[in-house]
Write a structure and sequence with these properties.
about 850 residues, alpha+beta, five-stranded mixed β-sheet
């Protein structure tokens, strides 16, 4: 369906320019080489309504001569009362072209006067209101499709709407005047005003056509064809990612037809490939993800002095970035580099993770614990000015001799493709650079840290980029996960403490009395109802904290949030989660999707959370919800697998945990069951109401020393077993034993606290275990066992009861042979997620 000819004719020239520039996510960003001159200084105006807002992006516009309104009923009421169209402008604080449009357009007195006279003007921070941004970006794309334009979306998003909020035309960046056949913003506004004045009925008709199309596109699709949920869907996704691999420079989503298109790190997609590399020994996936992570870690997209990653690369080689730093990129990339380091022990990956975490602690963390949102791309109207270098500046700082070494190591001897200066990068590995320079790798390594420290001191004397210091719950969830994982994997308590402090900050400052989350916080004030992503990502972060610390409070907090999320967002009819809560403001559409973008889809992360909660609590209702969620998106998953990376990761885990316990089809880090094959399992034992899942913290037992053991006891639903010690004390306690054919001893056994269970007729409640519990202890291995394979038998004495009956005392056993290390043999630590640091 196309719009009537009146709109086609009137906007033909407008759309020829609209969205040709702008800050884009995927797939068409503007080159970082572009820049715009600042206009002549304008007089400072009295603050407009945006001065009352907390968003740094909105506050940037508080002195515009434009009579801006924040999104809300006041603006819509004014538009309806005066029957004026609405001009909606959406951007964010680190968007370069948003700043350009503000300087050249919204600071222009004449343009602002016309805007104020003929429109009601609304300014939105897309990071605070992702629901509004999603709807009207979709509207822009639908509008382009309806008029037959090949353009895509971008920011600033410029949309014209009826007083009721129905979109009828728009674009991205508009210049202050007509340029080379492209219409400037004054001409666009005049045409919109004329059409609204003369053809309001037609405009409203077109707005309805666009709105109806948006609602159809954003409405969850009815799945009339049954889609089988199996690993075939995962393979479709993995194969589609492999097909988009740039084998020369690394990266996903590469198109040979457009080889020089910008590149995004796409962490969600790399996360799936890395999982396949580790879990399924997929060599192709391993090669792709390690090549890509290496290219990113060496490229200009990484800040080699201050740490952290810029938003995307404007070129195929990962050399010249779009310079803003977004919190969501830092959190996701740290998690990837940590897993890659575990897999390879490559020091480049460890350094990329550590330097990013240290950057976040130094520059992106509020003293109360929350993590800030972004650093701008530009300073003094020039993108990248804070980060790039003139070689003479470096030579002056380091001296002639060291400069020669530095220049060869950090790409200053190569052609410079960026007009504002050199972007530091590693054109080759440190080892290769040392060889080329004729010095040892150790000597070059010893110089790098002092070089970086010296140049960072020089760089800090420059004007610092704008810091967006609002705290967003969802992006903090991603970052909490990264810090928690780093605390465990890198054995760094500082990182664990940062994750806990941020999580506690959100619990205390961004949660209301009913346990509902807020979206945004700044300078002591929380605002806006949280979205699906806020709950999903924070839950994932708290589950990571539970993994690292073993503290049950984080599991309890995650489960409480999950229950709240189910109450507020679950679609009882179509299943899956809506992006906005049931009590959210009514907009022209309500979204529910599972597509990953620069951040993973909230539904997909929620599926991972539900599966993890099933494993940790034993509550099968979480697994049932996950199954319904997969069913809700099965149709779009089948048709568009490449956009479903995290959902594919979740589906893999779902299929491997048929009863909430991982099955052996997955290749994983060595656990006790792999080291100790089950020696026997009689028919009688299959009837047990508990299961044992043990893990060791070492790959071989240490003769003459101790190692850690944890035994997870998974108790059948609706049954419980007694605590140790039993309460009352005449009940049969649960007891863990380890027996061996050598003088091996189990000591320091720690049983968890139980739950109260009331039985009619007893004055005092029982203390029982339900669901899944962990029993921990130490194995003391005798020196005489060195080099042997010893027999280990794990036994659990227990009595299972339900509301009406108790079974007789039973013993479940698991046993087999385990190797003991030879003298001097390296013993590897394994299963770190099951053994939190004390």
């Amino acid at each position: 369906m196309r719009l009537p000819n009146i709109i086609l004719i009137s906007f033909a020239l407008t759309t020829a320019f609209a969205a040709t520039s702008g800050c884009s996510e995927e797939p068409a960003p503007v080159s970082a080489k572009s820049s715009a001159e600042s206009p002549a200084p304008q007089k400072r105006h009295e603050p407009n309504r945006l001065a009352r807002e907390s968003s740094p992006y909105l506050l940037l516009h508080q002195h515009n001569p434009v009579d801006w309104y924040p999104w809300g009923p006041e603006a819509f009421e004014k538009a309806k009362t005066e029957n004026k169209p609405i001009f909606l402008s959406i951007g964010y604080s680190s968007c370069y072209w948003c700043h350009v449009m503000e300087r050249l357009v919204f600071e222009n007195e004449e343009i602002a006067k016309y805007m104020n006279e003929h429109f009601v003007n609304i300014k939105v921070d897309r990071e605070e209101r992702p629901d509004v941004d999603d709807i009207y970006m979709t509207s822009l794309i639908v509008y382009f499709q309806l008029i037959g334009s090949p353009q895509g979306g971008g920011w600033p998003l410029s949309m014209f709407m009826t007083p009721e909020g129905q979109p009828f035309a728009g674009g991205s960046y508009f210049p202050p005047e007509d340029q080379g056949g492209r219409l400037g913003f004054p001409t666009v506004m005049q045409r919109v005003h004329t059409l609204w004045t003369d053809k309001e009925t037609d405009i409203r008709q077109n707005a309805k056509v666009v709105t109806d199309a948006v609602q159809r596109q954003m409405k969850p699709r009815l799945n009339l064809e049954e889609t089988k949920l199996d690993l075939t869907l995962v393979e479709l996704t993995v194969n589609s990612l492999k097909e988009s691999y740039d084998s020369e420079y690394g990266g996903i989503d590469f198109r040979a037809s457009q080889p020089n298109s910008p590149k995004f790190p796409v962490p969600a997609k790399l996360r799936l490939l890395l999982d396949r590399a580790i879990a399924a020994n997929d060599e192709d996936a391993r090669k792709i993800v390690l090549h890509t992570l290496t290219a990113i870690a060496r490229g200009g997209i990484r800040d080699h002095l201050g740490g952290g990653f810029h938003r995307y690369s404007t070129d195929r080689e990962w050399l010249v970035p779009h310079f803003e730093k977004m919190l969501y990129d830092q959190g996701q990339l740290v998690s990837l580099y940590l897993e890659a380091w575990k897999l390879t022990q490559d020091p480049l990956f460890e350094d990329a993770a550590r330097s990013t975490l240290d950057f976040l602690l130094a520059e992106m963390t509020d003293e109360a614990g929350g993590f800030y949102s972004a650093l701008d791309a530009e300073t003094e109207t020039i993108e990248g000015k804070y980060y790039v270098w003139d070689p003479t500046e470096i030579e002056t700082s380091l001296g002639e001799d060291d400069y020669k070494l530095f220049a060869e190591s950090f790409g200053l001897t190569q052609p410079n493709p960026f007009e504002h200066g050199y972007v530091l990068h590693l054109p080759r590995s440190v080892e290769e650079s040392a060889k080329k320079l004729g010095i040892s790798e150790a000597e070059l390594q010893s110089k790098i840290a002092p070089w970086k420290k010296q140049l960072l001191t020089v760089r800090k004397q420059r004007k610092y980029p704008l810091l967006d210091d609002k705290v967003l719950t969802s992006w903090n969830g991603l970052t909490i996960r990264a810090f928690a994982e780093a605390g465990s994997i890198l054995e760094e308590p500082l990182y664990t403490a940062a994750a806990e402090k941020a999580a506690n900050f959100i619990r205390s400052e961004m949660t209301d009395d009913e346990g509902h989350l807020y979206r945004s916080w700044r300078e002591g004030k929380s605002k806006l109802n949280a979205y699906l992503d806020d709950y999903a990502f924070l839950i994932e972060g708290m589950l990571a904290l539970h993994n690292t610390t073993g503290d049950e409070k984080w599991l309890g907090a995650a489960e409480k949030l999950q229950q709240t999320q189910l109450e507020l967002f679950w679609d009882k009819t179509g299943k899956g989660f809506y992006f906005t809560s049931h009590d959210h403001e009514e907009l022209i559409a309500r979204t529910k999707n599972s597509y990953d973008a620069v951040i993973p889809a909230g539904n997909s992360v929620s599926a991972l959370n539900l599966i993890a909660l099933t494993e940790r609590t034993g509550k099968q209702e979480y697994r049932e919800r996950a199954g319904e969620l997969f069913g809700a998106f099965a149709g779009v998953y089948r048709d568009s697998p490449r956009g479903m990376s995290v959902l594919s990761l979740a589906l893999t885990k779902y299929l491997e945990t048929g009863d909430g316990v991982k099955q052996s089809s997955r290749v994983r880090e060595p656990n006790f069951e792999e080291l100790v094959p089950v020696a026997f399992q009689s028919d009688e034992e299959k009837k047990h109401l508990v299961k044992l899942v043990p893990y060791l913290d070492v790959d071989k037992l240490p003769a003459g020393n101790t190692c850690q053991i944890v035994v997870y006891v998974e108790i059948e639903k609706d049954w419980h077993i007694n605590t140790n010690p039993a309460s009352p004390d005449f009940f049969i306690p649960t007891v863990l034993k380890v027996k061996s054919d050598v003088d091996l001893k189990l000591k320091g056994v720690v049983y968890p606290a139980g739950k109260k269970f009331t039985i009619e007729g007893l004055d005092d409640p029982l203390m029982v275990y339900e669901g899944k519990i962990a029993i921990r202890g130490e194995l003391d291995i005798p020196e005489t066992a060195v080099g042997k394979k010893v027999q280990l038998d794990i036994e659990l004495d227990y009595q299972a009861c339900n509301d009406s009956t108790c079974k007789p005392k039973a013993t479940i056993s698991l046993g087999g042979k385990v190797p003991v290390a030879n003298a001097g043999e390296t013993i590897k630590k394994i299963n770190s997620q099951h053994f939190p640091k004390k």
